Amino acid sequence: MISDNAKYWIWLTQTLGYNQPKIEKLYRLYSNIADFYEGGEKEWRLSGVLNSNDLKKLDSADINVSKPILQQCDSYGYSVISIDDDFYPDKLRHIYAPPAVLYVQGKTNIFDDRLVIAIVGTRTASSYGTTNAYRFAYAFGKCDVATVSGGALGVDCAAHRGSLAAHGVTICVRGCGINYNYLPDNARMRQAITNDGAVISEYPPDTEPRPHHFPARNRIIAGLCDGLILMESGKKSGSLITANLALEMGKEVFALLGNNSPRNMGSNDRIKEGTAYPVTDFMDVLAAFEKRSIKRSAVDFDDICLADIEAIPVKRSRAVKKQQNNNDLDEIKPTPSVFPQEEEPKEPQKTVPVHKKDVDLTEVQQKVYDYLSDKPVHIDAISKNLNIPVFKVLGSLTVLEIKGLAQAHPGRNFSLK
Known about the structure:
Elements: H1 6-16, H2 22-29, H3 33-38, H4 40-46, H5 52-60, H6 67-76, E1 79-82, E2 101-106, E3 116-120, H7 127-142, E4 146-149, H8 155-165, E5 170-173, H9 187-196, E6 198-201, H10 213-224, E7 227-230, H11 239-248, E8 252-256, H12 265-273, E9 277-279, H13 282-286, H14 318-325, H15 363-371, E10 377-378, H16 379-386, H17 390-402, E11 406-409, E12 413-416
Parallel strand pairs: 3-4, 3-7, 4-5, 5-6, 7-8, 8-9
Antiparallel strand pairs: 1-2, 2-6, 10-12, 11-12
Helix pairs in contact: 7-8, 10-11, 11-17, 15-17
């Protein structure tokens, strides 16, 4: 299926960009976005949403920019769901900068009718991390609870495969187009997901992955879920961004209890500071949603088939490679060499100043942004001086990091970027 107004929303994203909060404002203002387009420059100015630079971009952009994208989706059988369509996930309409369009391979009616749990964590997962991601997702699948993750190596694909093994529903949110063969060893997994679940992206099908796509993609994972589990997260793991966003959205956040390995430092810190509930069993998660309608299946958590665990690809860290070269033993099982060892694509560094005045922020985000300076300041000081709860400050800082306005420093300190 392709939404009636998809061409207009694609035109807007191709012109104004992705992760764009102005999209939501236009959606709220216009019951039919075609009226906005047909109104031309006069209507665009009257909307009060766009600045002069936006108006110039729209004036020079042809609506036909949408045509080849829609033709490709039609030929491949991909669905295109715009924000004003009934099939658009209602949960996403309420997040910061909701995607104007979702490109979907698979089912389109699975987003709002069941409990959804996000499972996220490090790409360089240990056997402990992949096993638990797989086991939790398997149990959720048996209970008709959907899982959502990012399709990456390590924890992400372990969660997707666990759900598939239980014939459950799982949603893979990509940081590239759904037709782009990034991480080819997961291609069969992604195809299997489409039978009962969905592979989705806010980017047109052939869009290549870029570094900034991944943190932006995380807001969609956080938006789709009702609760989120950190399986294994280091201090600088991208999954912490997803957890921060989930907290800001008011979602339940959990963290698997781990040892003192660097892989668990981020998730363990969240438990210690009280921003994530510790869990060891899938029922610890479901107990938090006792008011939700959940299929009560008899699942023996300790007797879940783990036959596929050894085939789950993880990204090798430098520490693991060095350890394997020294023939040391550790809790981490070596990853067979047939698995990809791809790094996220690198983007050339930009010298354009990032400290901007013309940015779209919520009231809390603006307060935090105005408070920051070039000198790093601890998050507790920000919270105390602004009289804003830590979790809201954390969520605001995450948005500022995504927009390239702030940067994190060791010890939970932050400054302007």
